[in-house]
Each structure stands twice: as C-alpha cells, then as structure tokens.
Amino acid sequence: MLDIGPFTCFGGKPSENYSSVELTWEGLTLSVGGILERGISTRKKLLDNVSGYCRSSSMLAIMGSSGSGKSTLLNSLSGNVPQGAVLDGDVCINGQNLGVDRSNLISYVQQEDLFIDNLTTRETLEFQANMKLRHLSPQERRKRVDEMIEYGKLTKVANTIIGSPISGNRGLSGGERKRLSLCMEVILGKPLIFADEPTSGLDASMAESICLFLKQLAASKRNVVVTIHQPSSDVFSLFDNILLLHNGQTAYLGSRTNAPAFFRSVGYICPRDFNPADFYIKVLAKDIMPGSNDTPTEKMETNVDLEHGINEEECLLSKAEANDAEDKDGNKEKQFERQSEESEAGDAKKPETKKFLASPTSVTFTPHDTIKFGEHVNIAEAYEKSQLKASADEMIDYLKNCIDFDGMRVPAVTKIRTQIISEFRNLIWRNSKILIRNPTLGYLRVLQHLFLAALCSMAFFQIDHDQERDATGILFLMVMVLSLLAVFNNIQVMPQELPLFLREYRSGTYTVASWYICKLIVEIPASIVLPFFFNVIVYFAVFQDPQPAKFVHVWITTTLASISGSATACFVSVVGWDSMKALAIAPAIYAPQFIFSGQFILIKNTKAFIRIVQILSMVRYVYEGAIVSYFGDYGGKTNAKNGKATISLLTMEEDALWGKDIPALGGIALVYHFLAFIILFLRARHNV
Q: At what angle do helices 443-459 and 468-506 cross, to 10 degrees?
C-alpha cells in the first residue's frame, strides 16, 4: 500500500500526526433565491435539515435520484457554497467546527476532469507536488510522484500527453484521466477525500476499478465520501455506508447491509437477484414525482410479480433464512454483506463504539406502526421516525462531543503560501510547455505569420519611392495583420484555461496575480520574435533601398501592435469567459479602432463627438508610429520623395513616435491588462 506519510495541512508543513479523522454534519440546510415584497420569502431549499457522519477508514456513498441534492451536499461539506446561497448547520471534524474553510483537510475530486492537455501525466503530478508540497525536498517530491503513478496504475502512460477528447488530441482514456484526478488530490496526503460522480461516463469495469481505488484509500485511515447516481451491484458492494437523499432530505443513512431491512419495514421489498442500488433509486425517483399516488405495492409491481409466489410473508423472511437461501444460490454479493456485518460487529466491541449496541449497524427493523401495505409512503418521513435515525443522531452527538480520540486533534488552519519565486518558476515552466506544445500558440502561429508575410510581400513587392499610397497601404496592412493575429490566437486559447485556473486558484495553488503575470511573461517573447520575422520578410521585400535603422523603428511600432492585440485579447477573454463570447466581443472593440486609425478618415476630420474613440484607439497610435518611422527622418533620410508631405497629408505629427505614440500605446495596453486582471480577480473571488 502506498505510504503517503502523515496527513498534511494544505500547502504547508506536516500537521501533527493523528490516527484518524471523524467527519460529522448536523442540520445542514441550503437555500437559494430572493425575498419578495412584504417579507414573503421565495428561497428554495436544496438541502433540508440533513445530518450524517463518515468515520475514518470508511467509504460513504451519497445516492439519490437526479436533483435530490447529492452534489449540493458534497459541496456544502467541502465549504463550496454557491454565490448567494445561505447555508445553515454545522460541519465538524473531530468535534471541531472549522467554519467555511476546510481546505486544509479535504481533497475534492470534482466530476469534470480539468487538465492542461499538453502536459504528460508525470508533468501534471510534478506541478501539483511542486506547488503544494513545498515542505518536502525535491527528491521527496519526485519519490511521491513516482509512488502515485504506481499506486494509480498510470505507469504505462506516465510520459503520455493527457490530450483532450474534445479537440481530438488522443491521450489518456477516460478511466486513466479519472485516476489521474484522484492521484492529483491523494498526493497531498489529506485525510478527507470527496469525489463527485467519480464513475460518470465510465463503463462498468472501469467504474469498479475507480471505486476499488477509493476503497483502498479508505483502508489507509481516510474518510472517503462519494456521490454516485446508479452504481452496478459490484460497485455498490464496495460501499461501507450509504446516504440516500430524497428531495434534499435524508431518506436513509446507515450500513449498506441494513438498507434492505429498512425499506422492507416501510413496505418496499427489494427482489432477489436485483441490484439494490437500482431498486433504491427507483423507489426514491417515483416517490418524488409531483402528484404521485403510487402505492408501495404498485411500485413493487414494476419489478416483482406479486401474483406468482412473492407475497408479504415471503418478503419478510427472517435474515437467517434469507442468508441460507443466498448461500445455496452462491450469491457473492450477500456473502460479502454478511462478511461486512461480521466485521462491523467486531468494530462494535471497540471502546469508542461499544456504547452504541443499537448503532446503525445493528438496528432491527419492523414495519412502521402507521404504515400498511397499499398506502403511500414518504421515505424521508419514515426515516425521521425510525430507530435508525435516532441511532444516527446518537452517533453524531458522540463524535461531536468526544474529547479523547487517542490524542487526535485537528490542526489549526495554517495556509503557508508557496514561496513566490517557486510559484513563478513553476507557472512559467508550465506555461512554456503549453506555448511550445499547443499548435495554436506554437507552429501554427509561426506558419500564420510566415504565410501572411509572404502574401503581403508578393502583393507589394518592390514598390517605387513615389508610390506613397501603396506604402501607407502596406504599413497599415502590417499593423492590421499583427494586431488581429495576436487577438484571435490568444482568444482561442486563454478562455480554455480559465476553468482550470478557477479550480486551482480556489484550491490555493497560486494567486491571481501570479497566474496572470506569468502568462504575460511567457507571451512576451512570442510577441517580439514573430513580428520580427514578419517585418524582415515584408520590409526588405517591399521597400527599395531599405535602411536598417528605419526597419528597427517600423519593427518596434508593429511589435507594439502585437502586444496591444494580446492586451485586448486578455481583456476580451475574461469579459466573455468562453471563446464564442470573446470572438463576438472582439470585433466590437477592434472595428472602431481600425475605422478611426487615420487610414480611412483623416485624424483632423474626425467629428468632435466621436473623437474619444480615436483617442483611445491603439491602432491609430501604431499606424501613426509606423508612418512617421518610414516617411520621417528616423534613422536617416526619408525613403519617399514626398515623405514629410505624406505625414502632413495624413494630419500626423512627425515627432509623435517617441513623444506620443509609444507612451500612449504602453499606457492603453497597461489599462487593458489592469482591467482584465481586476475582472479576473473579481470573478475568481466572488464566482461571478
């Protein structure tokens, strides 16, 4: 079994060694909505007075029909409360209420697997270890990564690119991606493992392997809580306890092996050779249908033929008789259940549980006094009145108030932030991998620049000195091409990274500033080098007798076009948040800048009421800088017969390059980046 060492506080030094962690929650009520006039509340309850527990070294499955509140409960336990929602109740760990911030003890594996598609399995785990396990030496971190790869059965794909099913870039399979998601959290050594629908989208065999992986984690003194919709019988047999939710309320909490007896006590009999999980979900799904008048008998008739040998007396066979019958049939699942009961009976003799002789693992059920076959039954109400509920409440009180757990204490929430230098180094390393391996940012981007440079060169090849109109046209075209390439290339990539950014930021991997600054640092070389090669091809192919000094000035100004395009793309990406919206917003920002750049309408002829658009147009300053660099006296004599006259005709200023254009471009680009950062920060902090 993997030895991942003592449980660790998030991002910091190892916490005090303690043998186990006990998780309890009581009276959880989550409501969303608003308030109407006259004090009439319109809030909707997604959870309604839900209580429960998950003991160390056990695996709890939260089950229920769609919309029953499974993921809502898991999010509430982890402290991920939706914006605008109100959560009441207590969540305690070893009897201590830690408030909303429980991230130092909880690893949350979300339903959607989010990765950097261009990294390998090993690189992904190394980044996680380097960012969050700074208390370990580099050698210890590498050893931890190697152990996780072996433990997660990822050895064969350790150096395989993760890939993406959406983009068609084949890499890891669905099961391998899910195991990698689990390893990403297990590597941190936290005692509580939450997994939201870990088997979603997997076949039965792969789903079982994932749950076996979680079962092994639970055996290593961890509390594993999973939400699962409709597990197979093999997967269901792996759960120690189950929590069934019905319309945001608890319909059952207790041992998996006691669930049939509870449902039998309220008139629902699970047929033999039938998956219990399917039966429970079917019962709960029909029970919450609005206006349903189905009786328990009617519900059972969908699965059991009551007229052919299965009546009430046969359904209420004693447990011993049922076990004997199953032994004859060789039913592996029932044998597993009896073995679990024997193990649980042994656990009941332990000091911390010996007082609960009537605990949820040893409750005897009888049909409820007020329930007759043929009556409509509300499962949640039946559970509230059952002995099982009273026993669960006793256990919760005991776990909350118990003082001595062999000296166990929950460590204080101490988030020791990764050192800023290390944080920057790891982010720059990962962003560089993305830049090199992503086709949109890598070789395709290079090919775009080379192709368009060749096309422009052929269209304007060796223009004469007196062709001022053609010269202004090619300069404007260079500005437009470099601007738009920067905008649309970044818009296609950055929104795809934002969901992963949010998840990593909220788990405390890095700050917003670190992520944003490192992204800009990695982007700067491409924004300089690609315009350089573009200018080399176009400038020396188009203009006769080109002067190197003038080339440098033209390159500087057109490079600023690329940098300003990247700034615009960052702003548009965080405003739109996805590529489709960003692509719709970008033309609305850039089209006015091209219109008022000075190429189509003279600067002096722009109407006063719309001149603000021209003043804020980055394209106007880039174009003016390119015009005065070529036609002016920068770096030597002008290359055109009427260079200064052309500048005057376009109502531009000959000395505007360093005095106005470059400072304005730098200032506007910084404003766009600042606005993008503020919006990104607000979205990350307030989930908007």
A: 170
Query: DSSP label at 133?
Result: -
Residues 619, 593: contact at Cβ < 8 Å? Answer: yes
Q: Please tell me the predicted confidence (pLDDT) of residue 40.
A: 58
Nearest alpha-carbon partner for 665 in 594, 602, 617, 593: 617
Q: In this structure, are residues 592 and 607 in contact, taking their beta carbons and an 8 Å threshold?
A: no
Q: What sign does the CA torsion over 621, 626, 631, 632 have?
A: positive
Three-state DSSP class for residue 574: helix
Please answer whether residues 71 and 197 qualify as being in contact, where contact means their C-beta atoms are separated by less than 8 angstroms: yes
**Are residues 399 and 95 in contact, defined by beta-carbon separation less than 8 angstroms?**
yes
Question: Any alpha helices (H) in 102-219, and if so which ranges?
Answer: 121-132, 138-151, 174-186, 204-219
Burial class of 426 by CB neighbour count within 10 A (0 to 12, 13 to 18, 19+): buried
pLDDT, tens only, 356-410: 333 334 444 444 443 444 445 678 888 888 888 888 888 888 887 764 444 444 4
Least confident of 103-117, 262-276, 645-659: 645-659
pLDDT score of 438: 77
Measured at the CA of 21, the angle between CA 17 and CA 24, to 5 degrees, comes to: 155
* Pair of tokens at residue 675: 């606005």
Residues 6+ apart with CB under 8 A from 634: 549, 550, 553, 628, 657
Q: How far apart are CA 676 and CA 228, in angstroms?
A: 38
Residue corresponding to tokens 């084949």: 170
Lowest mean pLDDT among 327-341, 524-538, 674-688: 327-341
For the segment 591-630, what is each residue's pLDDT rounded down to a tens digit?
888 887 777 777 677 777 777 777 778 888 888 888 888 8
Contact 189, 125 (CB under 8 A): no
The predicted model gives 630-646 an average pLDDT of: 65
Cα–chain center distance at 583: 23
Place of tokens 């998601």: 181
